[in-house]
Design a protein that fits this description.
The complex is a heterodimer of chains A (about 100) and B (about 500). Chain A is mostly helical and about 100 residues long. Helices cover about 75% and strands about 0% of the residues of chain A. Chain A has helices spanning about 5-25, 30-55, 55-85. Chain B contains 21 helices and two strands. The chains are: A mainly alpha (about 100), B mainly alpha (about 500).
């Protein structure tokens, strides 16, 4: 029997994987994908909680989050393309005009 | 149907933005500016008109519309007027940059309008989902605005840094919302507050994790240390009007959301978030003030100053009282105008406005611009009789009243440190030999925006009650006594 806790642990693991990806990977596309993993981990949490609570809110919220994630991916990829035109590299470390 | 009246400002802004995008090819820069300013004025009028004034002594009951997702209270109205003003000033300040950097005008102004819509939604949200959607609408437009000058590599770099850190912070915020939803079974603020106090969930591990994650996500939006790394890079890389818009608008929107979430949804958790916010405030004040000292770029200096100012603004909220919240709101309001003014001077000076050394002897070549800059610097430092003093006084007073004397002492010490780097610019302007020729004439629109910012900075300082009368704290789902009773139970 798969309980609520299984789903929560799985989504926490997914969220941790996404977080690690954002900080460890050195490719802009991979970082974008990691952020998507984080958002989908949250979606899984919402769906699992919605099912456990017996309410539809959780599922409905996921639709909104998916829409936002799509818009975010569109904006992110557009920025990456604009960057790539200046310097043929996807490594975030090659961008150092602004000191951190 | 009547509920729609409360969303008129947002509807007008979003509708105009969509029309602007549709007819983008036929819109000139002058038309786009005129439309933006007119629409901002309409939004301000609508937000004032739609809300019946409430009795100041009884803001307890939350007036909600749209099934409890949108709050229609004085707090929302106040922020809608503020965001309309920010939008109008940013639209006027952008005139020169849109021309010189060949930005497509209709798209640029449509994004400004949509970002303001998101800010207004975030400030009037009474539901975590609406709050998230409002903040996302704002920040997605902000990413594009930062990188809209695609030919400048530095702007692209700022945009990608903003985007990566911003999406990461949004994911944190959303995970926090998910955990809070899971524990309480609700996303609207009143239901969360009552579920937490009735089922005694204040120490539930998911609740604490959710609170921490949400605090992190919102701290990014207001650029509080340690979630501040993006601010200096983004303000430096973005063109000056966009930086001004972000410094004033997105910061105020983040504060508006944070204050309402803390007071309306998590009132029973007050002890926990007070401690978290106190930490953020102390770090922001110290790190912002100290790092600003070594800056040589004016926009970067203003970015670190904005980090320090968010620390001051949080002092009011830390106390957790409605009076403290009012002080924080007052701070957000006054800070918006003084930072718009300071960025306005940077814009008025053109290319040379970004280099700190270019301010040497400015009083001789451009006396009016230098005087305005001096005014805004005084206000940012917090010296009477400017509005900055009134704002800083209010938050420090509320911190002392709330028993956070250490925080107040840190704030005063950081103000002294900040006086060094603000007044150094004033010394450069008035006591050094002029460098190069006089700056070019300031466009009328930029001058008008500067005049408005200066007006608010002076009037807010001399007659503090003019603006503080509007700064009502957010209405709560329950009356304060009910919450105290739940706390003591």
């Amino acid at each position: 029997m798969v309980s609520l806790n299984h789903y929560l642990v799985l989504s926490a693991i997914l969220f941790a994987i996404g977080t690690a990806g954002v900080f460890v990977r050195r490719n802009l596309i991979t970082i974008l994908l990691s952020i998507e993993i984080m958002l989908n981990a949250v979606n899984l949490t919402f769906v699992a909680f919605g099912r456990a609570l017996g309410a539809a809110d959780g599922q409905i919220i996921v639709f909104f989050v998916m829409t936002v994630a799509a818009a975010e991916a569109a904006v992110g990829l557009a920025i990456v393309i604009a960057l790539f035109r200046h310097r043929e590299s996807l490594n975030p470390d090659s961008w150092t005009a602004l000191k951190w | 149907m009547s509920d729609l009246v409360f969303l008129l400002p947002e509807l007008v802004l979003a509708g105009t933005a969509l029309v602007l995008i549709l007819i983008a090819r036929h819109v000139s820069r002058a038309q786009a500016v005129a439309v933006s300013v007119v629409v901002a004025a309409m939004a301000a009028i609508f937000s004032g008109w739609a809300f019946t004034p409430e009795a100041p002594e009884a803001p307890a009951a939350m007036t909600v519309v749209f099934g409890g997702t949108i709050a229609a209270d004085g707090y929302a109205r106040f922020f809608k007027v503020l965001f309309a003003a920010t939008l109008a000033l940013a639209a006027l300040l952008s005139v020169k940059h849109v021309d010189t950097e060949r930005v497509p005008p209709a798209e640029y102004y449509a994004l400004l309008l949509l970002a303001s819509t998101g800010m207004m939604l975030a400030a009037s949200a009474a539901d975590l989902l609406i709050l998230y959607l409002g903040l996302e609408l704002m920040i997605l437009c902000a990413y594009v605005l930062v990188g809209i000058t695609v030919n400048r590599p530095i702007a692209n770099e700022a945009a990608i840094k903003y985007f990566l850190l911003g999406s990461f912070a949004s994911a944190l915020l959303l995970y926090g919302i998910a955990l809070v939803y899971g524990v309480t079974g609700a996303t609207d603020f009143a239901a969360i507050a009552s579920a937490v106090s009735e089922r005694n969930l204040t120490r539930h591990p998911f609740m604490l994790a959710g609170l921490a994650l949400m605090a992190g996500g919102l701290a990014f939006k207001i650029a509080a240390v340690p979630f501040h790394a993006w601010a200096p890079d983004v303000y430096q890389g973005a063109s000056a009007p966009v930086a001004a818009f972000l410094a004033a608008g997105s910061k105020a929107a983040g504060l508006a959301a944070l204050v309402r979430v803390c007071l309306a949804a998590f009132a029973p958790e007050q002890r926990i978030w007070s401690e978290m916010l106190a930490g953020l405030a102390v770090l922001s004040m110290i790190v912002g003030s100290l790092l600003a000292i070594s800056q040589t770029n004016m926009k970067r200096l203003l970015a670190y100053s904005s980090i320090a100012h968010v620390g001051y603004a949080l002092l009011g909220l830390v106390t957790g009282t409605p009076d403290g919240a009012s002080a924080t709101i007052t701070y957000a309001f006054i800070y918006s105008f003084m930072t718009l003014g300071a960025f306005g001077v940077v814009i008025a000076l053109g290319e040379r406005g970004e280099d700190l050394l270019a301010y040497r002897g400015l009083a001789a070549t451009a006396p009016v611009t230098a005087a305005l800059m001096f005014l805004f610097l005084l206000s940012l430092t917090g010296i009477p009789p400017t509005a900055g003093f009134v704002a800083k006084f209010a938050v420090i007073l509320s911190a002392v009243r709330g028993g956070h004397v250490v925080l107040a002492v840190v704030a005063v010490m950081c103000s002294v440190v900040s006086a060094f780097f603000y007044l150094r610019v004033a010394v450069m302007m008035y006591m050094m030999e002029p460098q190069g020729a006089a700056p070019a004439r300031v466009p009328g629109a930029v001058a008008a925006a500067l005049a408005v910012a200066a007006f608010v900075t002076i009037v807010g300082g001399i007659l503090p009650d003019t603006f503080t009368a509007w700064t009502v704290p957010p209405s709560l789902g329950k009356t304060p006594t009910e919450i105290t009773r739940a706390l003591t139970r």
